Amino acid sequence: MSQQIEIVMAFDDAFWAPTYATMRSICLTTPHPERLRFHLLHRTLTPEHHAAIAGIGRDYGAQLDFIDIDARGILTDRIAGFPKIKLRRLNPIVYARLFLGDLLDPDIARVLYLDSDIFVRTALDPLYGMDMAGHAIAAVLQPDRMHVIAGKDLRARTAFSMAQPYFNAGVMLIDMAQYRQMDFAAELAQLPPAELALFYYDQDMINFCFQGRIMEVDPRWNLQNAEPAHEVFNPAIVHYSANPKPWFAWSRVAFKRTYRHLMTNEYYYRYRCERMVRLVRGWLKLA
């Protein structure tokens, strides 16, 4: 039997169903899913949502390691020392992947980090077992990297050059020995506050701190924002990283129908109802 595959995901209670769908897609496309071990970095979950995700272990034999970030207090303590960013505020869970060295078993040598808005369509063994050639991270280039790096009018920045590669952090194969040695706060302290304020959350931080140490991977392992016409490319991993998500009724994205059934009809409709309730509550607060 092939090696065990260590997978890390980070999410909050509002993303429980997409996380379930991503995990299920991996199990369905992996020979012997009992080889999979999911390290689930999460904010506090409702018992009902926790039970739904735990069903992956029961149904497919995968190993699940639930890690409650709120209970450990890491996000609050550590993020307080990070630079203030001008972009709209995101849930602090987006920073959880910066602290893998503190959260995972020190014996783990390699992990595959995956965002929760992902559909895995083939076995992950070729990606997970690839030769990283001494690099700390292996990832796919960000398709719109020039705009992500420089923003409006492609303004020059201190931290990045558009002549250098810039990678999406939603799918990353990570050498944990090198990753544990990274002190993100110390590396970022080299930059002036005005530059740090322009950062695109943790993705900029990872790209800056590991410049020259990230290996480029074929785009089929992280095809972003694919539409139905892109299904012909037969991507290994589809990443719904922009706003049109496959659980939105109005969205036009690749493999939308299949994704719905990954989530299962039961969880799909439950999740849509929950999202509507949260949306209405948000409107009432604004009113």
UniProtKB/TrEMBL annotation:
InterPro entries: Glyco_trans_8 (IPR002495), Glycosyltrans_8_dom-fam (IPR050748), Nucleotide-diphossugar_trans (IPR029044). It comes from Devosia ginsengisoli. This is Glycosyltransferase family 8 protein. Keywords: Glycosyltransferase, Metal-binding, Transferase. PANTHER family: GLYCOSYLTRANSFERASE 8 DOMAIN-CONTAINING PROTEIN, LIPOPOLYSACCHARIDE 1,3-GALACTOSYLTRANSFERASE. Pfam families: Glyco_transf_8. GO terms for molecular function: glycosyltransferase activity; metal ion binding.
